Amino acid sequence: MSDTVTLAYGSALDGMQRSGPMPIHPVAAMFGNDQSLTDGAALLAHLQSAGPEDALRQQFAQVLAGWDHVDSDAVWAAGTARNTSERRSAIVSTLQLDPATQHLVASLFPHATAPIVIADDWEEWRTAERRGERDFYWSHYRRYLLNKGWDAGVVAGLDHATEDVVRRLSDPTREVAYQAKGLVVGYVQSGKTANFTGVIAKAVDAGYRLVIVLTGTTNMLRAQTQRRLDIELVGRENLEQEISAHDSRGHEYQDDTDWEKDRFVRHGGRPSDIGYPDIRRLSTRGWDYRRLRQGFMALDFPRRERTHPLFAPVNLYTSDARLVVAKKNKTVLQDLVADLGRIRERLGEVPVLIIDDESDQASVNTTSPKQWTQDSKDRTAINRLIGQLLSMMPRAQYVGYTATPYANVFVDPSDVEDIFPRDFLVSLARPVAYMGAEDFHDFDTDIPLSERTFESSQELRHVRLLDEEPQDTDLRTPLDMYLLTGAVKLHRQRHGHASYQHHTMLVHEAMSKAVHRDTADVINAMWNSGQYRAPAGLARLRALYEEDVLRVSVASGTDLPTPANFDDLRPDIAAALDKISPPDQSSGPVIVVNSDKDLERQQESLDFDMRPIWRILVGGNSLARGFTVEGLTVTYYRRVTKQVDTLMQMGRWFGFRPGFRDLVRIYTTEELHEMFAAACKDEEYLRAELRRYSQPTDGERQITPRQIPPLIAQHRPDLRPTGRNKMWNATLVEKSSPGEPMEPVAYPNPGSRAGDEKTRANAAAWLPVLSAATTTVRFKTVRASKVAGVSTIQDTGKSYSARIAEMDHRDVVEVLRSLKWLSADTFKPELTWLSGLSPEQLKRWLIIFPHQVSDESLRTIHDQGPFSIFRRVRTSTGSLSAVSESRHRNAASRIAGLATPVSDPEADRLYAPATGAIIVYPNVEADVPDARSVNDGLVTLAFQLVTPMSTMPSSGKLIKWQTHNSADESAIVVDAE
């Protein structure tokens, strides 16, 4: 019966792929010639028993993902947007699945989140027919991933995400050359390589014949990328063409376990023998690109029909492809440019794809505009060489990949030689099972850390805070945790629940190579004195296991075994010690990874592809960007930086942790943890803004890639998006935020003469509002928390009192216009928007001064009040780290007419059309002993405001720009000092 079900429903799904969904059971009954299928019971039984490798289950995942993703105005789509729960509901409804099957389908095949695409005008060429005609390398890559154990829905999502990129490249067969430039933004350690491998596979199928992959700046990352492409794309048959029977040194992969176990993708024969292009490598795993000298003809592309150009289908589809994987090194790229220069007259016919991995590193021009001459720009070496490649090859397509796009979108788009993603930006969705920012921070909760539990707090489960000043014993507990988590992995493996090839710990304190050596010595000495086989050491491990490891694993709800009794883990501790400790007991388990030439031999052992790695890695930049640290479980991190992109790229603890998610720990300081929180907020803010503006308004796009830079936020003034030498641009004039809270934090800092004067002026500016706040009301107190990982607002059953003032919009604008800030640009775009609103959009404001529970906080300000005084912390730059509290926001939102989960009778009574709400927090420094003694003029009145949806611009466009480029009035990014 199972074969009948597979055949019947598989045929039904095949038939519906182009037409769209329809009632599936009668169609399957028709194809299977079996009327018993019409009730759906057989399908339900099959899916309930099917494993991930089941053919029908995989087909279901692929077809559902296709319907999820497609832009369609067909009746079945019911006007729903792609990749939404509404779209999936429309599909399931049209298929007429019964409730039990609907529930099973939802659990087996959750709908993927669509990538966010911001694109300029482009020409569609990737028709279904062209995709189907030539999908040789993509189909083999897809099959490879499925055989490797990837979920069919995830692979289908990768298919659609890569298609969002490839379709925006130029048609390789078009007569007139066009050079598209784009950017793909993923998450740190989130599978960007899988995406660009898929893009390359589809591009080669489509006709691109030279693929240049620019990796980071280290040999380790380049070799890692080359090997992965060799395994998953190039494949065994292409590689075997390079093996000479007369080469006594053997093939580069002859000792590779994956080669020996036949894990390299197979194409079923030499591709060119069955009408598809071979892929010839011009770099290998061991060797970067080198001058070809007399062999430079390897870069030539013969034409079968010499009267036609190479890009003509008759020539293109019969020519082979070349692959170069090169690190971003001046000498390497100079060699590549020189060799290409020998065939320059023919390069104009070659469709080229340049993939720039970690494209914000080294690729961006970082010279100051002050150094540019009138007719040209000085360029950094790598930027200049990439520009040469693009100028030499008019059919070259440039696609950058990064998790931190700030430097890329700050490039001047009018610079035709540079790499600004003028044509498209694709922001990839967060992958399933990925551990990211939300797994290490408790966002959207006001529960004090002391009151959180392992069950309710991601932060408690995974983060361990260190003192700001390093202590000699800081590393003892992380080392113990590393050993224990390794033992738990071996315990799980011993009981047949998982397999762990690698188990690593990362120690990152500084860039200095001298510090790396000293740290390695400290760790080796501490490890050797750990007494891990003696009673004292085992007692220490038992306490850490019972208080931390076991409790977190239980709270995480993992279905993997974690022994309840520490004694059951002791054999695994001994086994872990044997794997971690090197044979030479006088040394230790540390591998130092940096650019120190004296350590190259030691670093050669850090080869995750060739051998299991159970070691502690000490290093800096070499381990920070792009390079995947396999099996990373424990991180000790103390390195400070002032740039979001640098900080995020150091977050090696982000990524996929199959079988040991509950064991992941990061040891860091509170300050660094807060900096990561701010960086993560900057990142998520940009993604949210891109998602918001990617939706068309009246059928027209809201923004193009040129208009992205001003969407970048900065949650901490001391943490810039990227280096100053990459930020020469962009002025945001006006920013609308209908229904969205606005909470500036850059208030003047009392304590200096200038700060005191500005704070006094601000307090005086608020006097009309203070004097109007004569009424006291009570609002409901709410609590923000997470339930099952979902942010929610809950009624606490309590209330708080507050003074309120009602004022005309124009009067409030005058107050806001009078305020002084740390920076002249603070709140300026928002104030410009507020100032231009009509009375129909915003007529009145309700200003709320919440009171704390304790009467001791009450005091008058300029003889008005009394008001509660709050204590707030400032960052090292003087800005407030936060202003509002979620317990007060519910009332403000309801006054502005916004829906919230918790009703509030008093707030609802104060609601009126065209009404906004402001919550004001009079505050002083957190360490002030008696807030009531602070001079009136030195109290900072900080606020959060929220506007009603009536403030939505009639055009639907929420942002306005300022341009200074007289040569191009549409330019958004400008050359500015």
TrEMBL record:
Native source species: Micromonospora trifolii
Pfam families registered for this protein in UniProt: Z1
Record-given protein name: Z1 domain-containing protein
InterPro entries in the cross-refs: Put_endonuclease_Z1-dom (IPR018310)
Every Putative endonuclease Z1 domain range: 475-716
